[in-house]
Amino acid sequence: MRETSQRNQGERGTPKRYGPGVQLDIQTHVPPPPFPYYRNDKDWGKLRQPIREVVDDSDDSDEPSLDRVAIALSAPPLETAPPPEIERHQLTIVKKLGYRQEGRGAVVVTCHLDGDASRVLVAKIYDGLEYPVASYGYDFMYLADRDYSREAGAYRAFPQSFQGSIVPRYFGSWTFPVEEIGRGVRWVRMILVEHVDGQCVFDLILRAKGATGPPYKDIRKILEQPVDYALLPPESERLEVLAAVIENDIKLSWFAGVVHHDIAPRNVLYRREDSTLRVVIIDFNDVEIRTPRLVEKQRRGERLLPLSPIERYWAGSNFSEFAEWVPPDWDSDRDLGRLWLCERWWGSPCYRPPYDDFDDYAAEFLEKYGDRYSPDAWRKKLGFPNRRFG
């Protein structure tokens, strides 16, 4: 790391650490296997154990007297086998992205490599000193390793056809040294991905609440404000984006085995490319990575179709995470969202029909809107020989 980013103290969340103009000497790195998502996973804790003297089970604690630099030096990020060939670059930070307050997690910045300002990339930096001291029983170095392993693992799992399409294109995992003056050198991990020049759904919602930015001065106060729907994109465009989010989420799980667990407006970007709407899902540090559902189905000899958006999103058809993006009357009447699901995907040959018990689950809806949306009617339309799917 260049002199502009060297630091004498161990305080967290210092903007200068990864501010504009800071230069980092990066080199390729092989990430560790993704940390398990569930605590009852047989591999839980095998990669790294929390530092017990740091962890405060009350969560999200900060201890100002804690020497975090000393801990980071003594408990560095996980080491892995070196890559076959080491590639090196000088990275220059352009500006910070995202909504997190300083010291609350991974730092996301735009950047360029080797002085080529014409090619802008996004770097996501997993520096433990930028995380809370402890959260949910995990120390800051554990949290940084966990996020790095999962996000790099997700991008490595995505097929090439997804990259540069429904997720940003991935440009590898990296590491760089940080000199703590008079104390030693520690290493920090990061990934590089495509800079998607699109609109963030969360930004559009904040602006419809009267905010100017990003950056935003007091995001909590902004979120308390009502949405002026006249300032949002047209309803047809908003629902087109939501439909793409739903389909992309299913694709990630079905074809790549990546379950996002945090599909929300802040993690959705979109833009028009000619006449095509490109909707991109980002932020994969909280994912669960498992065998793709398609592979599971192949092993069992079942019909190779993913779960329908109708069945997958039926219970959450008011789309609470997108409550200020969908039509406002969906919040008070879930059947409106369910009707949209059915009108959009009923009978689609891309998805399997709902199971039999869906009839019971949706009994009141079917009574209200007729039986044209029943699983049996769908199977007949698609020519399935048996009532029970699979």
UniProtKB/TrEMBL annotation:
<feature type="region of interest" description="Disordered">
    <location>
        <begin position="1"/>
        <end position="42"/>
    </location>
</feature>
<protein>
    <recommendedName>
        <fullName>Non-specific serine/threonine protein kinase</fullName>
    </recommendedName>
</protein>
<feature type="compositionally biased region" description="Basic and acidic residues">
    <location>
        <begin position="1"/>
        <end position="14"/>
    </location>
</feature>
<dbReference type="InterPro" id="IPR011009">
    <property type="entry name" value="Kinase-like_dom_sf"/>
</dbReference>
